[in-house]
Amino acid sequence: MDKVKVISIFGTRPEGIKMAPLVKKLQEHPNIISKVCVTAQHRQMLDQVLELFHIVPDYDLNIMKNKQSLTTITTSVLEGLEEVFEKEKPDIILVHGDTTTTFAGGLAAFYKQIKVGHVEAGLRTFDKYFPYPEEMNRKLTGAIADLHFAPTDASRRNLLREGINPEDIFVTGNTVVDAMEYTVEENYVFENEELNSIDYKNKKVIMVTAHRRENWDGGIENICKALKKIVEENKDVELVYLVHLNPIVKDVVYRELDGIDRIHLLSPLDTKETHNLMNKSFMIMTDSGGLQEEAPHLGKPVLVLRDVTERPEAVDAGTVKLVGTDVDKIFNSANELINDEAVYNTMSRAINPYGDGKAAERICHSILYYFGLKEEKCREFEIK
To answer: Annotated active-site positions, please?
Structure first.
């Protein structure tokens, strides 16, 4: 074998952001035949990422449907990938993280006895319903995978506890850090004019996202009540809430926060706008997984609006704090960061535990090593 055929499979915006720098690196390598298959589990938001990174998929399953369920996503991915695999006969497929596309992609490859590489492997909360369905998507994909690209040593330890062969684990750092090298610009001008109107130098701008399924039953409402209190009690705060398009989330947020001074309710932004808003913000409040990795790279404290996280490294490093959805806890934690410079500096200057911008390069090297095209294992990512 002198070339390895790799199919990268992803379907949502977060996957796309993190797989894009890897796709770029795979395409550059002379010993790799790189193909891309998107499922379009999230159509519009995924297309923004493909356009930003100038990626044209070789295959587009276009599975997204109105009111799609986890079952319809899974079956559509399985059926669509069966045809792709029969035609391409890849040596290995790559899936990322914790989406239903990830699990179904791994399962489809397993059914064809194709090797599976799991990018961002080993993250765990150890509660199968938090986050749901992501925790089990990760575990089930991990059970199928042949190569496990763990972003950190903590993720490696999780995999070892589950009996994964240490020789099949490669600690690479997280590709999201690689992605931000493409997107963040110091003097960035937003396409969204409302964002350009905000005084980032004299206001403490808080960027917010909150949409997780486990927060639907009262959690989003509590978060909104806390946000309202934060703005009312701190006149130097301006808040930008990127409101998920799901009506379960959107209806609650607009009912609670629409029309309040210094609160901007915006639709989700594309990747470049989001990363640059984060870079200009004072702090981040989110129930997202990816933002917990992105914000530390920019030196921004993060309050996580969840009770558990599969990304404990940032909590341990001090750049992320779990606050759940209790109104008082959210308010008090945010208020402390807003008004106590020492607390803020401690979090903002904490070491980013997630990567150094070379994760995609390590993954390529590790694939070639696995297939005998590199003599030595790649030097792994270590937190300095």
So the answer is: 98, 120, 134, 211, 213, 244
In which band, very low, low, confident or very high, does the pLDDT at 246 lie, cut at 50, 70 and 90?
confident
| Residues 65, 60: Cα–Cα separation, whole Å | 14
Q: b/e string for 295-328 if b means 16 or more Cβ within 10 A?
A: bbbbebbbbbbbbbbbbbbbbebbbbbbbbbbbe
Q: Which amino acid is at 384?
A: K
Q: Is the dihedral of CA 160, 162, 164, 170 positive or negative?
A: negative
Q: What is d(CA 121, CA 191) in angstroms, rounded to the nearest whole number?
A: 35
Q: What is the pLDDT of residue 19?
A: 97
What is the three-class DSSP state of 72?
A: helix
Peptide bond into 131 cis (omega under 30): yes
Q: Which residues contact 314 (CB under 8 A, 6 or more apart)?
A: 292, 293, 296, 302, 320, 350, 353, 354
Q: Which amino acid is at 220?
A: I
Contact (CB, 8 A) for 224 and 256? yes
Torsion of CA 244, 249, 255, 259, to 10 degrees: -20
State residue 383's pLDDT score.
79
Q: List pLDDT tens digits, range 116-131.
A: 999 999 999 999 998 8
How many CB atoms are located within 10 Å of the residue 259 CB?
A: 7
Say if residues 7 and 84 touch (Cβ distance below 8 Å). Answer: yes
| 356 DSSP assignment | -
Q: Which helix (H) or strand (E) holds 34?
A: strand 32-38
Indicate the SS3 state at residue 253.
helix
Per-residue pLDDT at 214 exceeds 80: no
CA–CA separation, 57 and 79 (whole Å): 18
Distance, in Å, from the CA atom of 20 to the CA atom of 14, rounded to the nearest integer, reads: 10
Classify 164 as helix, strand or coil. Answer: coil
Contact 347, 246 (CB under 8 A): no
What does the block give as tokens for 91?
């040596």
Between CA 20 and CA 241 the distance in angstroms is: 26
Nearest of 68, 80, 57 to residue 7 by alpha carbon: 57
In whole angstroms, what is the distance from residue 321 CA to residue 296 CA?
12
DSSP state of 352: P
- Report the predicted TM-score, pTM, of the whole model to 2 decimal places: 0.82
